Amino acid sequence: MAKLSLFDRRRQRVRSSLRKRAGGRPRLSVHRTGKHIYAQIIDDEAGKTLAAASTLTKGSKGSGATVADAIAVGKKIAEAGKQAGVTTVVFDRGGFIFHGRVKALADAAREGGLEF
User: 24-42 pLDDT, tens per residue?
Assistant: First the structure.
């Protein structure tokens, strides 16, 4: 087995602690790159994505690399989650620090009606 990077080790640690606390709730997974930010609501028991939003979807403005773009994605994922019938989730920040764009997306999703 290849040696995992520090990022991958942090991602595994976060994900394993989430599984213990999830209690059957879907997971709001966030991924960010230098240019874009992505969010998905995933039902791990069924292995299906219930809702998704990103800066690549139609109607998104901006480059995707700003806090304002992350706020827009957070509002979109909350709206898509409501349409899918999801109100409570567990937040999966992946290996990313809960700061900046990741925090902005989480706060906007909470304002949009998702509970976590």
Answer: 899 999 999 999 999 999 9
Dihedrals phi, psi of 49, to nearest 5 degrees: -90, 120
User: What residue spans define the domains of the chain?
Assistant: 28-111
Q: What is the CATH number of domain 28-111?
A: 3.30.420.100
Q: How far apart are CA 19 and CA 53, in angstroms?
A: 23
Q: Do residues 115 and 88 make contact, with C-beta atoms less than 8 angstroms apart?
A: yes
Arithmetic mean of pLDDT over the chain? 93
Closest by Cα among 47, 104, 105, 46 to 77:
105
pLDDT exceeds 80 at position 60:
no
What tokens appear for 54 in the block?
A: 């990103």
Q: Which residues pair with 29 in a beta bridge?
A: 40, 92
Find out whether 7 and 1 touch, Cβ atoms under 8 Å. Answer: no
Token digits for 79? Answer: 């709206």
- Amino acid occupying residue 49: T
